[in-house]
């Protein structure tokens, strides 16, 4: 007989990781998986339980009254198989390598399939990558894919580093409404308003035929009254774009007289 001693609470610390690794290895054995995901012509044998725990999309699919809840094979449309493979690796291992080449694909697919943890981590990564050369592209990407935290970070960077951003090729492709919003924002950081004038002229000049009609409006958003009379008369008024826009020319002439 065993003596009456205190209970022994045993915990195998490696057990959770061993189970996950074991389940991952079982994916190569058809009899030991319960669903196969198909995307882009590739098949991915896996386990409903693992998918449901890592993805709200799959949790709803497998626990709801959908055909897929009992189907042995689930077709995923408009899903990049290489990105899906990375998400499944994460589901089974908790590990994921994010880099500049895959972060956008991971955000797109993790948003689509509701791998919220992956989406959050990728969002943070993307925010840390923002610089003068890419902030406008990242801003647009964040808006398209519903990442308000990315949009906010990119917009803040744009306002704080406007003079650096305006030197980039991306700036010339900026939508007019976004340029207007930027020039109107009270948090716009610039050394003086000549930077805004130069930005407006560069933007209009990039696509003169379609943009020169906006020149007067854009110049009206710049605090020309804070610039010297000599700059207005000797530089801005003699600018070919201003000369080619009667409204803009008259506006600058009026500012010179005031």
Automatic annotation (TrEMBL):
SUPFAM superfamilies reported in the protein's UniProt record: POZ domain (SSF54695)
Repeat keyword on record: yes
Gene3D superfamilies: 1.25.40.420, Potassium Channel Kv1.1, Chain A
Annotated BTB domain residues: 33-100
Domain of life where this protein originates: Eukaryota
Keywords: Kelch repeat, Repeat
Pfam families: BACK, BTB
InterPro entries in UniProt: BACK, BTB/POZ_dom, SKP1/BTB/POZ_sf
PANTHER family: KELCH PROTEIN (PTHR24412), KELCH-LIKE PROTEIN 30 (PTHR24412:SF398)
Protein name as it appears in the record: BTB domain-containing protein
């Amino acid at each position: 007989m065993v003596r009456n001693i205190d209970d022994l609470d045993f915990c195998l610390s490696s057990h959770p990781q061993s189970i996950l690794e074991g389940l991952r290895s079982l994916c190569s054995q058809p009899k030991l998986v319960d669903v196969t995901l198909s995307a882009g012509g590739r098949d991915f044998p896996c386990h409903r339980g693992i998918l449901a725990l890592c993805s709200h999309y799959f949790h709803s699919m497998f626990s709801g009254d959908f055909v897929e809840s009992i189907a042995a094979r689930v077709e995923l449309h408009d899903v990049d198989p290489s990105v899906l493979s990375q998400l499944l690796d994460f589901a089974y291992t908790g590990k994921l390598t994010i880099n500049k080449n895959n972060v956008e694909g991971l955000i797109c697919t993790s948003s689509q399939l509701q791998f919220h943890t992956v989406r959050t981590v990728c969002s943070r990564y993307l925010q840390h990558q923002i610089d003068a050369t890419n902030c406008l592209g990242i801003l647009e990407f964040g808006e398209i894919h519903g990442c308000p935290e990315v949009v906010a970070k990119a917009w803040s960077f744009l306002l704080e580093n406007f003079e650096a951003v305006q030197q980039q090729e991306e700036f010339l492709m900026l939508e007019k409404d976004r340029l207007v919003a930027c020039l109107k924002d009270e948090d716009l950081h610039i050394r003086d308003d000549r930077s805004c004038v130069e930005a407006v002229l560069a933007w209009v000049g990039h696509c003169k035929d379609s943009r020169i009609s906006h020149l007067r409006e854009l110049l009206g958003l710049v605090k020309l009254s804070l610039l010297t009379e000599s700059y207005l008369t000797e530089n801005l008024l003699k600018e070919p774009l201003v000369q080619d826009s009667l409204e803009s020319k008259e506006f600058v002439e009026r500012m010179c007289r005031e």
